[in-house]
Amino acid sequence: MAGFVTVFNSYNEPITNLLVGNNVAGNVAGWSAGPTPPQYTPSGLKVARSKYPSTSPVFAYGDNSLVFPWDSRTGKTTVSIPTDQSLDDDLILYLTQNDAILLTARGVVINTSPVTTTLSLAEMEKDGAA
Q1: Bond into 37 cis (ω within 30)
Q2: 8-11 long-range CB contacts below 8 Å, 24 or more apart?
Q3: Please, which residues have CB within 8 angstroms of residue 35's CB and are 6 or more apart in sequence?
Q4: Contacts of 59 (CB under 8 A, 6+ apart)
Q5: How far, in Å, CA of 127 to CA of 108, rounded?
């Protein structure tokens, strides 16, 4: 059975409608304000892995485009999963404002991808930039 990629939101704002390969994978709460779970504990969402891209939200071998709308900004990145990572293994993906960090379940970093962000329309209007 294919593994999963657990996507962790390492930001205080929730992600609404995480897109993986242009397909909605779900929502991810912002990190915990504490005390239980401890403050800054990231929230996660399990997304299936697949050998090939699909019309469902899956992480496939090769490049996977991600769009993650927070309340104040939207992040975008491309996460590449190399074919030497067994499809049966679970992976971990941390999303931050400036990087996406893909790891094995044993804590080995596979790769790091830059994240680009744009302010949300509401934030632009609040800042007087719209």
Answers
A1: yes
A2: 8/42, 8/43, 8/44, 8/92, 8/93, 8/94, 8/95, 9/42, 9/43, 9/44, 9/45, 9/68, 9/95, 10/42, 10/94, 10/95, 10/96, 11/70, 11/95, 11/96, 11/97
A3: none
A4: 5, 20, 47, 48, 49, 50, 79, 81, 91
A5: 40
pTM exceeding the 0.85 threshold for the entire prediction? yes
Residue 5 backbone dihedrals phi, psi, to 5 degrees? -110, 120
**pLDDT at position 120:** 79
CA atoms within 13 A on the CB side of 81: 29
pLDDT by residue (tens digit) across 95-126?
999 999 999 999 999 999 999 999 977 666 77
User: How many structural domains compose the chain?
Assistant: 1
Residue identified by tokens 């485009």 is 65
Spatial distance between the Cα atoms of 57 and 111, rounded to a whole number of angstroms: 21
